[in-house]
Each structure stands twice: as structure tokens, then as C-alpha cells.
Amino acid sequence: DAGVIQSPRHEVTEMGQEVTLRCKPISGHDYLFWYRQTMMRGLELLIYFNNNVPIDDSGMPEDRFSAKMPNASFSTLKIQPSEPRDSAVYFCASSLSRGGGGGYEQYFGPGTRLTVT
Amino acid sequence: GENVEQHPSTLSVQEGDSAVIKCTYSDSASNYFPWYKQELGKRPQLIIDIRSNVGEKKDQRIAVTLNKTAKHFSLHITETQPEDSAVYFCAASMNYGGSQGNLIFGKGTKLSVKP
Hints:
The complex is a heterodimer of chains A (117) and B (115). Chain A has strands at residues 5-7, 10-13, 19-24, 31-38, 42-50, 53-56, 65-71, 74-79, 88-95, 107-108, 112-116.
């Protein structure tokens, strides 16, 4: 398996622009997580899905952030409008639940480094 | 909600020495405790995990111990090598049956192994 795939790997945009980050989980995994990593705040969970349904979005900073999972193999995280404080590395991770034969391990993608100027 | 504290924030050891990183958690319902290693510019990668029904787990040079009563768990790396240099994160979550909770991460420990 190719692992979790994220695109783009790097994104530089100007304040006020819309940014869309993409994630393809490991095939067959039924959980998908979006994290943000900064030096100040560390690794923070933004939102996670189970079988394409959002379970907990309490980590989403504000209404400028939205996430979707239209099918089992694709998810997006959108920021509109973007602000300089959104600059961070955004990771997507997936896992296979116990019910599906897994054991809670989360596998991270390579991340998207977002810079908002 | 769950809160995970991790210490120390930086750790420097000589090659061949042991390294120990400690974490405490607040929610007694947490039952899954993974450790991730993140090299500079790379993704976090799971190196070992432990579930609450186990007190200790080993995998070659790394081991994790869990004290449920005290709500703390530790990572032990023996015979450290320069390639062990990285940031290590502990985490905690609550999982039951087929349901999986989110991971709450510690702030990380930057381990430097000097040759």
C-alpha cells in the first residue's frame, strides 16, 4: 500500500485566499483524522471521520475551516479565507478500527506545509 | 477532557546510554497509549503502543511501561544510537470495541544522541 497520501506537499498563498488540502487514506481504513502541527501548539486534532461521517469537529478553530469526506478514499480540508496564523503543517492520518480488524494505530501522511503571507 | 503532559521537553544523551521520556494523563478512561517518533521534516511514525490491560511492552531496544493507578506511562530507549535523534510524542485515547477516540498528544521531547 502507498500509505496515506496528501497533496499538495507545500502551499504558499496570500492572506484572504482559499486553500484546499487533500488526503487519500489507506485503502480499507474506516477512520480519518486531520491534525495541525505548529511549534507553539504542537499536534492538534482538528476533526475526525468514521465511515465518512464527521465524529468530532471540536478542534476546528473557527468557521473559516471546513472538512469533508465525500467517500471512503478522499477527504478535503478547506480554509476560507486564509490568515497568516493558519501557517502550519497539516497532517492527515487514517486507521482501521477494531471492528474492521485493526487496533487503533494511526498512520500519518507526509503532511502539507502551508504558508500564508 | 483528556490532558497529556510530557517531560522532559529536551533530552541529550551519549550514544550507548539509555533515554527515558515520561508522560502523565488526566482521564482515567483512556486505554490506549501510543508513542510516535518524528524526524525533522517528516511525518510522525508509530514506534510502540500499549493498551491499558498491559503493564509493559518491549520491542528490541524500546520499551513502554504503564502505571494506570498513577496515570503515567514512559518510553525507554536502551543502547541509544545517533539515528534515534528525533522528537518523540506520547499520546492517549479512549477506545471501546469498534469505536475509536481521538489521540491527545503530549508536547514532544526532542532527543539528541551524541556520538
